[in-house]
Specification:
Elements lengths: L3 H11 L3 E5 L6 H10 L4 E5 L1 H5 L6 H11 L5 E9 L10 H11 L3 E5 L5 H17 L4 E5 L13 H7 L6 H11 L3 E4 L24 H11 L3 E3 L7 H8 L3 E6 L1 H14 L2 H19 L6 H4 L2
Parallel strand pairs: 1-2, 1-8, 2-3, 3-4, 4-5, 5-6, 6-7, 7-8
Helix pairs in contact: 2-4, 2-12, 5-6, 6-8, 8-9, 11-12
Length: 301
């Protein structure tokens, strides 16, 4: 079975992408996997720490158990998303035990998020995390720059963020970061934003984000590793497709499928209806938005 690192590198070489679908509610797993298989695509299913704390994915073990029920190795791998060193509530996180638990359970790639730290601290913590992942034969994703949206309270106006480049990943820092940490994939900030997770804002429509493609090219050339786009929901399609040709090899998708599930569940009271909504949304994203229907044989031959 081809490893997650090889699959993401194949995407980078082919100018396509591995979508990574977040599972904040366990019943979302089955329809996401079914959609990926039915579209003959390849994707990761993934869970972030905040999704078992602030949503209903329950735990690393619960997500792995649900994954094991539906896994299809020709189409799916299981990824551990954002494990922060400092979380969205500005609390320090003991992240290495989470990594070790994920490895023991059978997760196939891991992400450390030290983006709220200084560069020096982020390098040091990411190096520790990468060493743990590599010792288990797994790739380690890291983040540099500020992909905003998960924090409590309002974000600055989006146009202000984009025009000023506030929080964008610095090209020189990125080159140093990859060299000194040994991370395999790097999540970058180039205009993308996360969906809000606070109870007051999580139902709101995301801003129609843009991406600075020229900045992305500079990051690709400086780092030499596959790049990752977090906050993949709601970005204007033309920018997304261009990003895949210029270094983005993995894109995280959370808000669109989560809101499809939560809206349908609220309106119908039926988990089955909510799962149908997730299935339909995931199929449309794969086929019509990311244009990756049929790419499984390219990524995992």
């Amino acid at each position: 079975m081809l490893g997650s690192n090889e699959i993401v590198r194949n995407a980078a070489k082919a100018g396509t992408v591995v979508p990574a679908f977040n599972i904040p509610h366990l019943p979302m797993m089955a329809p996401v996997v079914r959609a990926v298989v039915d579209q003959d695509s390849f994707a990761f299913v993934t869970v972030a720490r905040l999704e078992w704390i602030k949503f209903q994915s329950k735990s690393l073990a619960a997500v792995h158990e649900e994954y094991a029920r539906h896994a299809d190795p020709a189409h799916i791998r299981l990824h551990l998303d954002h494990v922060p060193v400092v979380d969205e509530d500005n609390l320090r996180v003991d992240y290495l035990p989470i990594f070790r638990e994920a490895i023991a359970l059978g997760y196939q790639s891991l992400m450390i998020d030290g983006s709220r730290l200084s560069l020096v601290e982020n390098v040091a913590e990411t190096r520790k995390a990468a060493d743990v992942a590599h010792a288990a034969g797994l790739p380690c994703e890291a983040e540099l720059g500020a992909v905003l949206g998960h924090e409590e309270g309002p974000m600055p106006p989006y146009e202000e963020l984009f025009s000023t480049g506030q929080g964008f990943t610095d090209v020189g820092e990125a080159a140093r970061f990859v060299k000194e940490t040994g991370c395999d994939w790097l999540s970058v900030a180039i205009g993308n934003v996360h969906g809000a997770v606070s109870a007051a804002t999580r139902d709101q429509k995301k801003v129609a984000a843009r991406l600075n493609i020229e900045h992305l090219r500079r990051l690709r050339d400086a780092t030499g590793v596959p790049l990752v786009l977090h906050g993949g929901s709601g970005i204007q399609q033309a920018f997304v497709l261009e990003a895949f040709k210029n270094g983005i090899a993995k894109i995280n998708v959370g808000t669109e499928i989560r809101q499809a599930y939560e809206t349908a569940l609220k309106e119908s009271g039926s988990i089955a209806d909510a799962q149908d909504a997730v299935y339909g949304k995931t199929c449309r994203l794969l086929k019509d938005y990311y244009d990756v229907a049929g790419n499984s044989r390219v990524l995992a031959p």
